[in-house]
Specification:
Elements: H1 25-30, E1 35-39, E2 42-45, E3 50-53, H2 56-59, H3 68-80, H4 92-104, E4 111-115, H5 118-135, E5 143-147, H6 156-161, H7 165-168, E6 178-181, H8 187-190, E7 193-194, H9 206-214, E8 219-224, H10 240-251, E9 254-258, H11 272-276, E10 282-285, E11 297-301, H12 303-309, H13 329-344, H14 347-363, E12 371-377, E13 380-385, H15 394-407, E14 409-410, E15 412-414, E16 417-420, H16 428-444
Helix pairs in contact: 3-13, 4-13, 5-12, 14-16, 15-16
Length: 446
């Protein structure tokens, strides 16, 4: 007897099936915030209302939305090659994009391993660090060092080295052998700072304490964001990253920069490592590499790391790691077109020129209701609001609601911190509009 089959139907107005990530689902589904389309500096709601994008999506649409050259490249690639095997085969555009990215990278970070998200990039970099020490005969180096208030994605490696309690507390012990540096933020010493704060370089010296505790022979790598973004925009103190590099060199420890947010122009350079004149051993990237049009990420590794694996029989796999969609053709095409837009429009240089304008605009919000601190660096700003008594995160959530439904602006919210990071195509008028929109939000949730 034939089994009855269930009809396959879609219910466009049924919100229940989709478990929305990093979202209070019950509240969201009662009053959803839905985006139907986007162009340049704006999102458009399902009823056609324009919403100013003050955060470049999730700090990833650096060239603005739905840029014609990127759209065209994706369309053409989809018609030519949808997918080749990612293992033992590849396609030309993956090699072309890797070469272009390597040419932009600092120092000898000449090799690119592609994956699909910042989380995958971090886990890839951590695995490469462990394997590298193994193949060079230092297999005792298995410990990984992260930093408090750091965000490195949501893989088990990323939440282990990350330092955000909400991302860790429900998921057990995660990876063993992980320790953390202290975060670099001190409101008393750094409040309302434009750019990198003067105070705090000495906090890097805590790495010497961890070396004394664990011994350098057990430590594989240190991973930090040059600028911590997801916990509210924490620029590095002046000299801090240089000091970390010195301590890592002294003890033979790899230094990994997580540039998923800071890569591709956000701080006025292709990579933050250029701004700070510090070359790490690996850089993770994602977000801006394709202007978020197609998911893509990767790890840039130094020549020394890559060469350490290139031993043994040539027919054998050197690194047993990868993803089905590593270097996907549509992502590679989007990446190449995105790099062309950045170059042709001088967007990294534009971000440098706009930085002081943006900083002044954001700092002018000092004195608005409940503003406790403002930090700016590059085209990024974190605005800390006083939490409601006994209800942390509620003021931030209400800000999210009011922005979409009433004020026609979008900036990211992390608990009670607003994070602005406009597309690099923003004009001074756009920055003024974002500033005024944030002011309205602050007053609305006072």
């Amino acid at each position: 007897m034939a089994l009855a089959t269930r009809p396959v139907t879609s219910v466009p107005n049924d919100l229940e099936a989709f478990w929305v990530p990093f979202t209070p689902n019950r509240a969201f589904k009662k009053n959803p915030r839905l985006i139907a389309r986007a162009k340049d500096m704006h999102y458009y709601t399902v009823d056609g209302k324009a919403v100013m994008d003050g955060s470049a999506g999730m700090w990833c649409c650096n060239a603005g939305h739905n840029r014609d050259p990127i759209v065209a490249a994706i369309q053409q690639q989809a018609a030519e090659l949808d997918y080749p095997p990612a293992f033992q085969f590849s396609h030309p555009k993956a090699f072309e994009l890797a070469s272009r990215i390597a040419a932009l990278a600092p120092g000898d970070l000449d090799h690119v391993f592609f994956c699909n998200s910042g989380s995958e990039a971090v886990d890839t970099a951590l695995k490469v660090a462990l394997a590298y020490n193994n193949v060079r005969g230092e297999a005792s180096r298995v410990r990984l060092i992260g930093r408090e208030r750091g965000y490195h994605g949501v893989g088990f490696g990323g939440i282990s080295v990350g330092g955000i309690v909400a991302n860790r507390k429900m998921f057990g012990t995660a990876l063993s052998g992980v320790d953390h540096l202290p975060h670099t933020y001190n409101r008393e010493k750094q409040a309302f700072t434009k750019g990198e704060p003067e105070w705090g370089a000495h906090l890097a010296d805590d790495l010497d304490r961890l070396v004394a505790l664990h011994d350098a022979s057990t430590i594989a790598a240190v991973i930090v964001e040059p600028m911590s973004g997801s916990t509210g925009v924490l620029p590095p103190p002046k000299g801090y990253l240089q000091r970390l590099r010195q301590i890592c060199d002294k003890h033979g420890i790899l230094l990994i920069f997580d540039e998923v947010i800071t890569g591709f122009g956000r701080l006025g350079h292709c990579f933050a490592s250029e701004r700070y004149d510090v070359t790490p051993d690996m850089i993770t990237f994602a977000k801006g590499v394709t202007n978020a049009a197609v998911p893509m990420a990767g790890v840039m590794a130094s020549k020394g790391i890559y060469d350490a694996f290139m031993t043994g029989p040539e027919h054998m796999v050197e690194l047993f790691h990868g993803y089905t969609y590593s270097g996907h053709p549509l992502a590679a095409a989007a990446g190449l077109a995105t790099l062309d837009v950045y170059k042709d429009e001088g967007l990294f240089e534009r971000a440098q020129k706009l930085e002081p304008v943006f900083a002044e605009a954001m700092m002018s919000l000092k004195g608005e209701p409940n503003v406790e601190d403002i930090r700016t660096v590059g085209l990024l700003a974190g605005i800390d609001l006083a939490p409601m008594q006994g209800k942390p995160g509620l003021r931030g959530y209400e800000a999210t609601e009011r922005m979409y439904h009433d004020i026609n602006i979008y900036v990211r919210v992390a608990m009670d911190t607003l994070v602005a990071s406009p597309p690099l195509i923003a004009t001074e008028n756009d920055i003024g509009e974002i500033r005024d929109g944030i002011a309205k939000v602050l007053r609305a949730v006072a």
